[in-house]
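Let us begin with a simple case.
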Amino acid sequence: MKIELIQLDKDNYTEALPIRNENVKYFFDSHPIGVLEHEIWFETRYHPQKNINQSYFFYLIKTDDGTVGTIAVDTNSYWHIMKNVCVLRKYRGKGIMTKAIDMLMKKHPSKDWGE
């Protein structure tokens, strides 16, 4: 199965919303969010053009079936920490996240990945 990591941007950020809401129990803020709340998150906390130091990178995980998950990395000079590690239920157990994590670690190499 072909897997791609596509950086979140203004044209595709809404594709992360259903994945977030299906996996809501794994978030600190554990209530489903709507389109407006998701848009506010994107515009105020993530938007790549506003993320001046580019220390947070958020990706959609895509297969031939479309967007099936999300993964992000928060980087600084001391460590790399994965965040938003989510896959839609029907795609779990297929090795998709394992491949996505490998791709993320190659895309953002560091000897200091947080454990």
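The second case is a distinct protein. As before, the sequence precedes its structure tokens.
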Amino acid sequence: MNPELPAVARKINALEEDIGRQCQQLTKFAASEKLATALASYDKSVEIALVKLQSEGVPATVAKDRAKGMCESQLFAVKSLEIKWKAMQSILRATESRLNGQQSIYRHFSEI
């Protein structure tokens, strides 16, 4: 038995625990519905601003763009949450790749 085998097994266990924590964070984030709420709030604000601009006689060709511009802070919140979600997923995939590598090393050492 290779003397490095127990150390690799500990790394595998640590990575599996890390993946479990990351999955819990993703689940918690998805369950919080922050992204969906922020997106709905942005869409609603754009529609309200659009109606307001149209009632003021702003041409329809520019009203939608101006309405979106009026709601840029809410769009920033939506984009920030989207980036957080994608970053969490990327970190999880990277950890899974590290786990895969450690498992390959373990298999190699156990065959020696």
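The chain has one domain: 5-111. The radius of gyration is 24 Å.
Keep these points in mind for the review questions at the end of the chapter.
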